[in-house]
Automatic annotation (TrEMBL):
GO terms for biological process: L-tryptophan biosynthetic process. One of its GO terms (molecular function) is indole-3-glycerol-phosphate synthase activity. It catalyses: 1-(2-carboxyphenylamino)-1-deoxy-D-ribulose 5-phosphate + H(+) = (1S,2R)-1-C-(indol-3-yl)glycerol 3-phosphate + CO2 + H2O. This is indole-3-glycerol-phosphate synthase. Residues 7-241 form the Indole-3-glycerol phosphate synthase domain. The lineage of its organism: Bacteria, Pseudomonadati, Gemmatimonadota, Gemmatimonadia, Gemmatimonadales. CDD domains: IGPS. Keywords: Amino-acid biosynthesis, Aromatic amino acid biosynthesis, Decarboxylase, Lyase, Tryptophan biosynthesis. PROSITE patterns: IGPS.
Length: 250
């Protein structure tokens, strides 16, 4: 794995993590009678440009939770998504629900950062990691008390994800190279996620009908970013998304 700089050094991060209290359980929060909504704090995106640069992380995350979000995804990637670890820290201070650190994680120190800044879960993108890196980062995350959300797009990646005992499985409809939303990916892959795993349908949801389609496939949760970032009535929009009954798989 390549070396990576962190604002805080490893020793400082390890000291913070040693003192850190428990965080709420990400996977448990996603098992509820309704499809659980993971609402994403997203300032900008490569496909849509700036969504809302002036967004206040504490205010926005409180609205998400008031609207019924089960968990939140906090983009911490700065160059393409305008995120930061400060957003993660501010969200942790503002709301009680589990937080996912959403970033391109390739190095173990990013897991320490995630835990130190209050995350309950971390995104691991199967396509961006070779199989041994994915397995190592998955085990390291679990050892730190973080749930890995392993993002997949095909059967081979699903097999690798399911090999990580504590992993929650995310199916991303968006091709991260072309940025195109391909609903057929979720339609094919969500039903294949083993029934004892939490399955998250990611990207491209704009309304409750989209959540209902994910529910019909058997998704336990949906991850919604862009459409919430630009919603005029954030709480009302979320309340509609969070009211869809889950059907389950198998
Ligand atoms: O904004 P959308 O279409 O609702 O998508 C949210 C989320 O799924 C998307 O931000 C995402 C999914 N996987 C990623 C990996 C990296 C960065 C971003 C992502």
């Amino acid at each position: 794995m390549r070396a990576r700089e962190s604002a805080l050094g490893r020793a400082e991060l390890e000291a913070i993590v040693r003192e850190a209290g428990p965080v709420p359980d990400f996977a448990a929060a996603l098992r509820r009678p309704q499809v659980a909504v993971i609402a994403e704090l997203k300032r900008s995106s490569p496909s849509k440009g700036t969504l809302d640069a002036s967004l206040d992380a504490a205010d926005r995350t409180r609205r998400y939770v008031a609207g019924g979000a089960a968990a939140l995804s906090i983009l911490t990637e700065p160059s393409r998504f305008g995120g930061s670890l400060a957003d993660l820290r501010d969200a942790r201070a503002a709301v009680p629900v589990p937080l996912l650190r959403k970033d391109f994680i390739t190095h173990e120190v990013q897991l320490l950062e995630a835990r130190a800044y209050g995350a309950s879960a971390v995104l691991l993108i199967a396509r961006a990691l070779d199989p041994s890196e994915l397995a190592e980062l998955g085990a390291a995350a679990t050892a730190l008390g973080l749930t890995p959300l392993v993002e997949i797009r095909d059967e081979a990646e699903l097999t690798r994800a399911v090999g990580i005992p504590q992993a929650v499985i995310g199916v991303n409809n968006r091709d991260l190279e072309t940025l195109v939303i391909e609903p057929e990916v979720g339609a094919r892959m969500i039903p294949l996620v083993p029934a004892d795993r939490v399955a998250v349908y990611e990207s491209g949801i704009t309304d409750a009908a989209g959540v209902a389609r994910a529910a019909a496939l058997g998704a336990d949760a949906v991850l919604v970013g862009s459409s919430l970032s630009v919603a005029a009535d954030v709480e009302g929009t979320l309340r509609a998304l969070a009211a869809v009954t889950r059907t389950g798989r198998g």
